[in-house]
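Researcher: Hi, I'm a grad student and pretty new to this. My advisor asked me to get structures for two proteins we've been looking at. I'm not sure of the right format, so I'll just paste the first sequence and hope you can take it from there.
Model: That works fine. Here's the first sequence with its structure tokens right after it:
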Amino acid sequence: MAKVDVGDAAPDFELPGTGGMSFKLSTHRGHNIVLAFYPGDATTVCTKQFCSYRDKAEEMDRLDAKVVGISPQSVDSHERWTEEQELNLPLLADEDLAVSKSYGVTGWLGPLARLTGLDDTPGGRYVQRAIFIVDGEGIVRYRHVSRTGARFQSVEDIESALAAIA
């Protein structure tokens, strides 16, 4: 499994997402992109994370970046969760974990992951909670991977990371 680090070229990808969108990273050159990898729709910590982003929509709008969520659930699952929680960020479906693997943020499903409600994962693997900031030239400028997935990067954390690369 590859590990993308700060200073590396961000692996390009294209994934389907909510709202009928298709997101291709390379088409967003010239803009900062925040890739928010997360284990699963409707899980406890993921819901807290994305609802905190929803609740701080004004701060998120002021970020000098487009933020997208990435997890292995289907677009249908993302659409349901978006509607249930009134989420305001696009969610992308990495159903085969190809993008998550290319960024080095998958792990084997163990007892800790099962406690979060991730009972059914592709090939026994799950997506770790992680934030990558890709600059306008396609270079990774920030990387944070949560070892346990119990904590997430807040809007303030993302804002500070973006300020540091400006």
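Researcher: Oh nice, that was easy. Here's the second one.
Model: And its structure:
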Amino acid sequence: MSSGVLAPPDRAAAARFFRVLGDPTRLHILELLDEGELAVCGFVRAERRGKEIVYSLALRGLDRIAQEADSALEPVAERLATCTRIGPDWM
């Protein structure tokens, strides 16, 4: 008879599973994909390598843009993190 308690390896797998679901961006992606297939809008290139699909940036300079954005928002990052006027629902 099973006690219903997860064994340690199962706990680790379950924790990873729920960590994936705990990210707002990943949840948003899943919600969008639930409505149907989507393209990656030209920002990401997908290449099949055997059974895997490897993704890379399709546009040069996106990494620099992201780094500059991090620097620019640093002074207001805490306020943005707790802002109730601008959030995931504004898009």
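Researcher: Is there anything I should tell my advisor about the second?
Model: You could mention this: The first strand starts at residue 44 and ends at 49.
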